[in-house]
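debug: dumping io for the single-chain case to check the tokenizer round-trip. Nothing else runs in this session.
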Amino acid sequence: MSSKKSIWHAQVRDYELDSQGIVNNANFLHYFEHARHMALSKDFGINFMAYQEQGIDLVMSEMCIKYHASLYSEDSFRVETHFLMQGRLRIIAEQQILIENKVVATAKTTIVCKDRKKGKPMMPKEMFEAITR
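debug: decoded output
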């Protein structure tokens, strides 16, 4: 696992609520996705656009979310993200959403890099090194 823990802070917006007055479960996907993207680009220096221009796409192949509590209007929360390599081709992102020290949701996401022309998984050396250092 990388030694870095990336943290992204946010606040619930009213349009993210469902008819029960809590954050709709689909919005948790957005929170986790944005936090992963920010962590990879800002903390690990991974330039998504540069990889896309080279014909390499980062693709989510699997995601599991466990909900422990609800988020409500104007709740301030943080998403903590840790990355690790699973073999040479898979990046695992382990994340949790917290309000102070209370866990609201956890997620485990598998990400692979895909060579667009060949249609096969591959891992750029620079990305592997960024995750494992």
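debug: round-trip ok. The first helix runs from residue 25 to 43.
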